[in-house]
What we know:
- By secondary structure, the protein is mainly β.
- The N and C termini lie far apart (37 Å).
- Strands 2, 4, 5, 6, 9, 10 and 11 form a seven-stranded mixed beta sheet that branches. A four-stranded antiparallel beta sheet has the order 1-3-8-7, with no helix packed on it.
- The chain has no helices and eleven strands.
Amino acid sequence: VTLVESGGGLVQPGGSLRLSCAASGFTFSRFSMSWYRQAGGKERELVASISSSGLSTNYADSVKGRFTISRDNGKNTVYLQMNSLKPEDTAVYYCQARRGFEDYWGQGTQVTVSS
């Protein structure tokens, strides 16, 4: 099982980034997918989730209206479109695949929002 995040980087406040998480080694379309983030010295927090079909999504209050999670089951990839970025969005972003007791994580990608 492999989850590989990409798309992180340095962006100015108000800017946008699109994160991708490419999955392999399991039946992607059967798993719900989530993005988490962890800032320095803080606990990992859930940012957004999407159901296996893509029909249901959920967001942390802090990102509602700014971030959009989506998935392409044909490409085994989940995305996180991040708009209107703020300095407090700075963190390492991780994708997670979950189905029942099965739980897989990527290695993370750094997002830094700074002028």
